[in-house]
Amino acid sequence: MYEDNLRALLSQVKDGTLDLDEAIGHLKTLPFENLGFAKIDHHRKLRNGFPEVIYCEGKTVHQTQKIAKVLARTGNTVLATRASEQDYRGVLEVVPEAVYYPEARCIVIHPSSPNTSSTHYLAIVTAGTSDIGVAEEAAVTAEAFGNSVERIYDVGVAGIHRLFAQLDKIRKADVIIVIAGMEGALASVVGGLVDRPVIAVPTSVGYGSSFNGLAALLSMLNSCSSGVSVVNIDNGFGAAYNASLIIKELENRCQL
Amino acid sequence: MYEDNLRALLSQVKDGTLDLDEAIGHLKTLPFENLGFAKIDHHRKLRNGFPEVIYCEGKTVHQTQKIAKVLARTGNTVLATRASEQDYRGVLEVVPEAVYYPEARCIVIHPSSPNTSSTHYLAIVTAGTSDIGVAEEAAVTAEAFGNSVERIYDVGVAGIHRLFAQLDKIRKADVIIVIAGMEGALASVVGGLVDRPVIAVPTSVGYGSSFNGLAALLSMLNSCSSGVSVVNIDNGFGAAYNASLIIKELENRCQL
Amino acid sequence: MYEDNLRALLSQVKDGTLDLDEAIGHLKTLPFENLGFAKIDHHRKLRNGFPEVIYCEGKTVHQTQKIAKVLARTGNTVLATRASEQDYRGVLEVVPEAVYYPEARCIVIHPSSPNTSSTHYLAIVTAGTSDIGVAEEAAVTAEAFGNSVERIYDVGVAGIHRLFAQLDKIRKADVIIVIAGMEGALASVVGGLVDRPVIAVPTSVGYGSSFNGLAALLSMLNSCSSGVSVVNIDNGFGAAYNASLIIKELENRCQL
Amino acid sequence: MYEDNLRALLSQVKDGTLDLDEAIGHLKTLPFENLGFAKIDHHRKLRNGFPEVIYCEGKTVHQTQKIAKVLARTGNTVLATRASEQDYRGVLEVVPEAVYYPEARCIVIHPSSPNTSSTHYLAIVTAGTSDIGVAEEAAVTAEAFGNSVERIYDVGVAGIHRLFAQLDKIRKADVIIVIAGMEGALASVVGGLVDRPVIAVPTSVGYGSSFNGLAALLSMLNSCSSGVSVVNIDNGFGAAYNASLIIKELENRCQL
Amino acid sequence: MYEDNLRALLSQVKDGTLDLDEAIGHLKTLPFENLGFAKIDHHRKLRNGFPEVIYCEGKTVHQTQKIAKVLARTGNTVLATRASEQDYRGVLEVVPEAVYYPEARCIVIHPSSPNTSSTHYLAIVTAGTSDIGVAEEAAVTAEAFGNSVERIYDVGVAGIHRLFAQLDKIRKADVIIVIAGMEGALASVVGGLVDRPVIAVPTSVGYGSSFNGLAALLSMLNSCSSGVSVVNIDNGFGAAYNASLIIKELENRCQL
Amino acid sequence: MYEDNLRALLSQVKDGTLDLDEAIGHLKTLPFENLGFAKIDHHRKLRNGFPEVIYCEGKTVHQTQKIAKVLARTGNTVLATRASEQDYRGVLEVVPEAVYYPEARCIVIHPSSPNTSSTHYLAIVTAGTSDIGVAEEAAVTAEAFGNSVERIYDVGVAGIHRLFAQLDKIRKADVIIVIAGMEGALASVVGGLVDRPVIAVPTSVGYGSSFNGLAALLSMLNSCSSGVSVVNIDNGFGAAYNASLIIKELENRCQL
Amino acid sequence: MYEDNLRALLSQVKDGTLDLDEAIGHLKTLPFENLGFAKIDHHRKLRNGFPEVIYCEGKTVHQTQKIAKVLARTGNTVLATRASEQDYRGVLEVVPEAVYYPEARCIVIHPSSPNTSSTHYLAIVTAGTSDIGVAEEAAVTAEAFGNSVERIYDVGVAGIHRLFAQLDKIRKADVIIVIAGMEGALASVVGGLVDRPVIAVPTSVGYGSSFNGLAALLSMLNSCSSGVSVVNIDNGFGAAYNASLIIKELENRCQL
Amino acid sequence: MYEDNLRALLSQVKDGTLDLDEAIGHLKTLPFENLGFAKIDHHRKLRNGFPEVIYCEGKTVHQTQKIAKVLARTGNTVLATRASEQDYRGVLEVVPEAVYYPEARCIVIHPSSPNTSSTHYLAIVTAGTSDIGVAEEAAVTAEAFGNSVERIYDVGVAGIHRLFAQLDKIRKADVIIVIAGMEGALASVVGGLVDRPVIAVPTSVGYGSSFNGLAALLSMLNSCSSGVSVVNIDNGFGAAYNASLIIKELENRCQL
């Protein structure tokens, strides 16, 4: 993309159809839209494969509303994470087709249609019931980006037979997201049983010396199973984004 | 249990009374009950000696209610820890015989009858008055599982004669749970005076550099007395569970 | 694999060609080889896609030697990481075809032949010269498993034009491993420029408040770019293992 | 100042116009005003270049009110940071000309007039929208002290082209304040592109393992770009104070 | 013991066979032997069930030698942990019957004879080969105190079938010691499969963010399996001491 | 005290005026009063020089009320720290002469009369206005125990002349308590200027990387001035208790 | 610079003197020199004001030697920090004019001539004798870049009069670097006495709870004096680099 | 002292016997001696009660030698801590009367004669044998300053009767230094039994989660016994310095 743009622009300079100063301006002016408090990055879909996502925490309802409106105008999928119901009501005023997922705390606008011909899917596995909020953030994210998701909840290692009963569904997934708090052992156990990449999400579930997810985070980073990589504590979105990149690549590259 | 089950199942396969695919299914389908958000582990009593326990924090009242109902149906003892009064009211609607212990923040259904012929008991020793909430979680847990408990509260090392006055009762216990915040020194002192296992519970009582129980936790892990093992900060339940395992073993093995 | 094995075994039981006790034994005896101090997991390639790897740190030369010998006998690729030259000399005595990569501190036996028809490759990008040891561990691992590797070293953000000059090669890779110490900013910058999964490896390069890689680790976990997942400090092997899983999946699934 | 004062005082002693005990008293009595709970440091402007600033957190409204009144009486610029609206209403009662900046949470009285002949200015650059509160504290501080400020917000490295589009304005500034949470990579990237001092402010924006700004703090301290120094988490005021010292020096020394 | 002693002593006072001052002296002089740099605690076996143990780290060879000699004189079992070969040579000079276990780094003198009529034993389970040093410290300790030990090494969760193959031996043990570094997940997995107390020992095996065993320690303290208690990092001795207390109690109480 | 008691008791045994079993009881029964949830330590004044103090945090109003009542009955000084106004109202119901110090959050009953003949006093020095709450806890504690206190507030090192103006009063104190948050530098500066013991109290005043007082705590522990010892964060009471011990000793020993 | 280059290049494209593909190549190929293991950034002097510096730790002698040779060829000042004597001997072989400063552990080639007409200088102030190594790294760096340096060593707050005796020299400096270990209080004290920017360098000098410089680092970040910014632990180079940027700006801007 | 000096100096100015400029010089020139790398603080004894002490770690033998020589010339007591045998040999060359205490790692020159008429003494109590090095640093320090010391070693809480047997000697001391590693519980136990100030020294003795003394440090800071203050890890010198200040005050004030 970048090289093509350069070539086109330079051709215009050569042809004299583009003035030197204008060319310099173009080379500097890149495709974002300035709201003052935010610079909307319309370029992101081309560059990163997925459009910009609104992280609502630390933004006012008004800011979220304005960013959502600008992004929705493009027709692309819009995803807002960590959104409160109040955020949702604000967005709804300006984008009536916005949908809210309260357990996931996500707002979705124009979700990608699932690729029905694709056989790819990702499995989201949680250790306990309390991890489901993070899991739903991951699931809604992945689905908004057009992926199929298999939810496998409450199969932690304290009752490991619950995990083994679901092993087939897990093993056939293209990517596996494992979400666990407390000691986070589930990531290592799953990682030892599959031949697909495992993305581990530590959660802040636990008490005392879990130190708000630090125990699970360290546990997952030190996994004795080799195929495990880790994202931030409670970052269901990030795990799903990573998984979506892998599945998109599977779909794109295999069509070649 | 596991081997017997395997033998029975394989005999049926041999006899032709069990179809191959059914057998495969059985080998995979283990005894848990799927509520969607939770997979109730009915198998736990056989495997771990005690039935599944509901940890209420991070669960909605509705989830706690549903899990309690399913577990209560089995007739086993049901224990719910970290339960608020609101949790209790929810459970009471579906299990009228549920009892609430507010200081311990526990709900108990069908407590095990104490083994009256047993002379075994566990001592629960606290350093201060502020540790009593954690101590009661331990005491209610142990009693729900059918054990006798001796409560010895507020005998911290700042007035060590209070401890010595209770030493006989402590020394005769089968297991001793020591619960302390601040510097947690009581665990080492008790550990140096007895010939029974000491399970230490650091509490988040303290301020400033206690860092919510970290000081007591490190103190107990580094005890210069050898017979001390440690559970998580404020984890009265875990200590009582461990102690109950030891006493159950004493009762079971001695009947042989 | 698991299901097929079960089916075969149960068929033998049904046929009477396998005795009940033998069958029980088989169901328990899984494919590992017991050296006493180690249980070689011959099953791993089937289960995880890649054979067992020897992590030499904390093992005696003698132990490494014996494990390498047993693994090499299978004809599979053998990889030993964190291997000293002394470890290598020990292995060489029993496996003459072993090759040593001193910068990577790896021993390789029977490397997988590169898949010449594959157009897939992974890019390994380092911030500085001091990160090259970790990068070579990643590169040798990936190559031992049959992957093509593009090395792009010393392109940290202090001179960000060095990165941009290599952007094409990075963007066309299937997976990108970013290796950086100090503040680890390179992972976020690369993550913001590509549409492929980025696996970030913090290194212990740095001094003072880098706290042996903690600064880079936290930095990468908190990346504002969404497509970044993280492995342990200095864990070049782990990053390459993850990347290899993704590329293997690309190769396998696309042949379908 | 100090030496001149000493000389004047000693001359008076020599002349006999100043009594020994009075002289001793003067040598001890330095210019502060004692409110009991606070000792107002009227001397600070001479000593530090800028007058004393009121840090409102941990002070009662009444205390803030009284200190503001005493400082305002001198005619100097008065700045109160971390001020709530309640603090402002209290100050307004006794200093009617006080102005409140809610986003910056600052109260300003008698701001310094901007030096219109000066071409110096400082750039304040933020990674995201959520960093703007800290950035405004810096901007209002710098402006209250008579400096020109260029605000450049939401140009984080996830969309690095937004930064490059503003590079000219950043490069021409005399001092650059970079404000970022999460992984704080922006400080290193800016530091690598400019030849002016960069003062980095980590913010507590982020979640999970950002540990309330620790990740960004460590990242900035370990910057691979050499010209970066760091102030406390969320300390927009401190960064602006430092930048103002540098610009004041530029203005003062160049007039010589 | 204490009460009997008091009674005997007071009787002598009553009888006049013991002088008041002597009695006071006796009440103060408790059974330890003062070497100046150490006070040998001959009383410990009565009080704690096992005699004093020599922790060699931080002691000179000469100190270890002298303490060992004094303790050996009593005929009780003597155990010295963290002993170097140099420590051993020193002890051997004064106690020719001392035996050294290099892998465990322990010196043993007069080991307790195993109780051949006892069916009790403890299982020592390690995740990896590198944990064996700690495991042997535990095994030698337990055996020195007269217990039977079942060693089950290298069965970590990366190849969980290795664990299941040994499950029977583990489940029948009276106490289970689980020793693991890295993420320490093995403790939770074993804890979920057995109905006996599990004593977990985190080891300093691992690299990067294992932070010398901190990751495994936090993991074990936060185990989602209830019957797990924890001792200090690498503290094989402490785990075995705890386990021995439980087994001793099983043997003693069952004879009543 | 202890030896005299023993001698008296043993004499009674010898005389036959005390029965053996009674004597044993006395030797065990030490002077505390059991309220069930608390064991009031009446013995503390003899043993520690000051009576027991009620730490209200973590106690119910009812518990505080009952302990205060029992302690007040003895006529000794009663001090309750970290007391809310609600705690005070509860205590007032049962001890009408109780007095409340809201800034210090202390309740005092029967304060010791100041020793008017004593020339000893302690200086309490704070860095800022926000440290005054902790300082008043220290001051009220010291005064309740009968000491004279010199309050010197808001003399932090940012305006060090304010400190030098008060140096005489500080240097003549018998003990100096230095209370500071943020970087806590005041303790080192004072410690370098006086020849009396300095007890440093870090406070949780500060933001960002002060980590609730950790920065000041570490600073004070590492003071380059030799005569500084440290108590817990925000522990004004503890500092005053220590200082009172020293002054009491000065008063007691000098009368000999 | 960047804009001029673009303009020239685009003019050539317009003129037809530069081919499109060549132009694209130039736009991408930025001025660095690729040694394979390192990419020498010749562009840095233009971009950052000072040429690239060699950080020797983590580089082999051979790598340092090659980088030094390439950089020296340009005639610019070359600075290598954290250089061992062995590094120096390596560099000397290829750059005979290289000079070594053992206390600073720096190699300097072609130092900038001091600007004799400049009245600007920076003061380097240390708390103790043990901080001198870090201070000399700062001093040699600043001098290599052509600045005048005033060294003021061993004036820590334990004997604060030593500081006051040097106050004039400190106050007249343009920038002040304060270097201290232990509790780092000197930075706050100096910051409170001057009206120039203070750059604080925590050192790893200290023991116990200094945690290798963490105590001083936190102390300096939390300075109650406003004009203090901080660089990494022991990072004398970074502080001098920052200070040199400020002085360079003073010199450059004042000539306008 | 300060005021007298000022008065004398001003009198000379008044009399005309002192020139204005000389007077200014004197007011600035304070009594230290500049060795370049160190500024010897001869003023310290007047200001702090004890002369300057040489902390050898981080100084070259040559620096220690020169400082020792200058300090010894004054005839005051000279103390050098953390001195290696090499340091000692260096000092001995220039100060033949220097004495070395290898266990304490201290060099002493001109020790103060013990005050034979004084009945004051300090008790130094250690938990274990491994704490003796730190204890001897404290003891040698206190004795060098003219104090009597009672050593009570190896009385940790694992065998608490060893402590009680020494209680009389401890209770009669004027100040008690408690030195302990591991969990540091001894400080709290002693603090609960005495009415004298307790200065606690955490040591780095312990392993695993003692984190080089952090566990003991936190434990002591959080002591439930009120009369305990704390110095840095392994800082025997600091504790003795504090204790000496208290005893000096007892001796000085009681003579008035």
TrEMBL record, chains A, B, C, D, E, F, G, H:
SUPFAM superfamilies, per database record: N5-CAIR mutase (phosphoribosylaminoimidazole carboxylase, PurE)
One Pfam family linked to the record: AIRC
InterPro entries cross-referenced by the UniProt entry: P2CMN_synthase_LarB, PurE_dom
Domain of life: Bacteria
Residues in PurE domain copies: 120-252
Entries under Gene3D superfamilies matching the protein: 3.40.50.1970
Entry protein name: Nickel pincer cofactor biosynthesis protein LarB
Protein species of origin: Sporolactobacillus shoreicorticis
Gene: larB
